[in-house]
Amino acid sequence: MTDDAQRLYGAVEAGGTKFICAVGDRGGRLVDEVRMNTRDPVSTLGDVCRYFETAAARFGALTALGIGAFGPLDLQPASPTFGFITSTPKPGWRHTDLTGSVHRSLGLPVHLDTDVNAAALGELRWGAGFGLGSVAYVTVGTGIGVGVVHHGRAVHGLVHPEMGHIFVRRHPADASFAGTCPYHGDCLEGLASGPAIVARTKRTLEDAAPADPIWELQADYLGQLCACLVLSHSPQRILIGGGAMQRRLYAKVQARMLHWLRDYVAAEELRAAGYIAAPGLGASAGVKGALSLALGAMD
Amino acid sequence: MTDDAQRLYGAVEAGGTKFICAVGDRGGRLVDEVRMNTRDPVSTLGDVCRYFETAAARFGALTALGIGAFGPLDLQPASPTFGFITSTPKPGWRHTDLTGSVHRSLGLPVHLDTDVNAAALGELRWGAGFGLGSVAYVTVGTGIGVGVVHHGRAVHGLVHPEMGHIFVRRHPADASFAGTCPYHGDCLEGLASGPAIVARTKRTLEDAAPADPIWELQADYLGQLCACLVLSHSPQRILIGGGAMQRRLYAKVQARMLHWLRDYVAAEELRAAGYIAAPGLGASAGVKGALSLALGAMD
User: Fold this and answer.
1) Do the Cβ atoms of A200 and A179 come closer than 8 Å?
2) Cβ contact (<8 Å) for B134 and A158?
3) pLDDT for B208-266, tens place per residue?
4) Which residues of B touch A165 (CB under 8 A)?
5) How many angstroms separate the CA of residue A75 from the nearest CA in chain B?
6) Which of B101, B149, B225, B288 has the greatest number of CB atoms lying within 10 Å of its CB?
């Protein structure tokens, strides 16, 4: 037991604008952490590998590495491009062999998943999903991402969920806005992401006046997402974070979720305070999620 | 191995109008099968238990029993009403202790899940999902039910998925129909179930003329369900059956799914023939799904 508890693992939160690399243990404690700007893949992944080489010299050999990354990712073990970032619009990063390049350089087992799946796993292990078997993690920012865990394992399937792009019904007060999603126009992300808020109000949600109708729109659209999550995944808790989520929205989103469900799903938990909540790991949800990936399967 | 292969299991497909009881083995072969009309819970479950007592006398002791049932069901092991049918509108069946009453009477381990989750598991083990890790099973009939399996296990979460009630966008040619769902009016089930088809056309889909606009509506609404399944669960295959599904719809539903996804999810499999297909176990999908439950977890 002591031996396991002392093992150290590497964690990478791979984002479109920054990478966070850290070293941590099975208890979710981070012993070191650095941030670096996302450049081209070769430079960035070179920086990542150099960080972990230095870290191993300082703290001792690492057991494994977890990467929670922006996507879409190929997570099919049998695929020739397993572990790659695939069709991302991010310049230079299309078809990047994330897992393979880090594994070859460091010689460690590397466990990859989407940033949101990783965060959902981290929340289940150490955060606001502790003790639960299923949780959904939603981030509302430049895009809208959703990660889901069932029976302690992240959902992949053919690719991985992309619930930011579900089609919600238009709020009557929002009929004329075309939406900002380059693929779908007015899908959820096109109506409720950070850029969609700015496109209509010329300011971020944080700066919106309390009486601004944008609050009602956000509550309704995110409430529809939560209703769809309950109908499609029935998670035991829904955690929502990200730069375009604000504390005063949680109760409103839950009220709109209940409005859309119309008492069809008979579970008192849906009405309980905290069914829709903020991530417990705060700004560390991403990197601790990656650490959780490094530890391997739960149970 | 021979010992395991010779073991026999009980299977119950518990439906609102009929119950199918069967005895089968690990290979999915049924050695006996009976159908009975659904009456009140005491009479019906009494019939079920008598059948299995007789079957055990004929074929030898059974190892375990699986029940795939109409719902909603309480599938939380820690709940005081675990194994119950909960808030069903079916007269007399509300709060019926399905698992407990059968277990107490027969003294066998009883494994319960929703009819659609059971069918999804059966398809994965012996049918059109064979060899896959994830599959969605959709039935379109009096209602619309969806079961989902990931990593070889059915999705439950807080309750279990109820994707028949997601909110789809209205087809422009269907703007005036109120929908038939008593809870939501025009959710998917309210627009695309058997009763919704009859309410608009005064006939079943089977009897609709090839040029009837109902085909286009059904294809669009079921296509939206499939798009939502891809975005929320990313299943490796979607199987659609039920009395209100027709063979000529599969290709149209897939085309509408792709229309709604607009190339956002980059996976060739979505375009492949057979991504949306009929259940491989046909009319036995339900009872073989229940048999699959009796066998316990896969892998």
Assistant:
1) no
2) yes
3) 999 999 999 999 999 999 999 999 999 999 999 999 999 999 999 999 999 999 988 88
4) 231, 264
5) 12
6) B288
Work out the number of other CB atoms within 10 angstroms of the CB of residue B39.
13
CB contact under 8 A, B234 and A156: yes
* Residues from chain B contacting residue A168 (CB–CB below 8 Å): 167
Tell me how far CA of residue B155 lies from CA of A265, B137, B260, in angstroms.
16, 12, 25
pLDDT for the residue numbered B1: 47
Percent with pLDDT over 90 in chain A = 90
- Stretch (H or E) spanning B23: strand B18-24
Of residues B86, B150, B161, nearest to A232 (C-beta): B161
- Taking the CA atoms of residue A160, residue B77, residue B98 and residue B90 in that order, the dihedral angle to the nearest 10 degrees is -60
If one counts every other C-beta atom within 10 angstroms of the C-beta of residue B176, the result is 7
The Cα of A257 is separated from the nearest Cα of chain B by a number of Å equal to 12
Is A138 in contact with A225 (CB distance < 8 Å)? yes
The residue to which tokens 């509550």 are assigned: A219
Question: Which pLDDT band, with edges at 50, 70 and 90, does A252 fall under?
Answer: very high
A1 has a pLDDT exceeding 70: no
Spatial contact of B22 and B32, defined as CB atoms under 8 Å apart: yes
**pLDDT single digits (tens) B77-97:** 889 999 999 988 788 999 999
Q: How far apart are CA B116 and CA B136, in angstroms?
A: 9
CB atoms B231 and A161 under 8 Å: yes
- Grade residue A90 by pLDDT with cuts at 50, 70 and 90: confident
Q: What is the dihedral of CA A74, A78, A80, A83, to 10 degrees?
A: 40
Amino acid at site B10: G
Place of tokens 């099975």: A26
φ/ψ (deg, to 5) at B223 = -65, -40
Mutation pick from A84, A117, A151 vs chain B, by most beta carbons of B within 10 Å, is A151
Name the residue with tokens 């109760």.
A251
Please report residues of B whose CB lies closer than 8 A to that of A231: 161-163, 165-166
pTM of the model: 0.95
In DSSP terms, A68 is beta-bridged to A13, A113
Beta bridge mates, A30? A24
| Chain A residues in contact with B231 (beta carbon < 8 A) | 161-163, 165-166
Q: Which residue of A has its CA nearest to B228?
A: A166
Residue A185 to residue A178: CA distance in whole angstroms: 6
Query: How far does chain B reach from its first CA to its final CA, in angstroms?
Result: 15
Residue B150: both structure tokens together: 């990931």
Closest residue on chain A to B160 (Cα):
A234
Contact residues, chain A, for B225 at CB < 8 Å: none
- 3-state class (DSSP) for residue B276: strand
Could A269 and B224 be called an inter-chain contact, meaning their C-beta atoms sit closer than 8 Å?
no
Plot region of B39 (φ>0 → left; ψ -120 to 50 → alpha; else → beta): beta
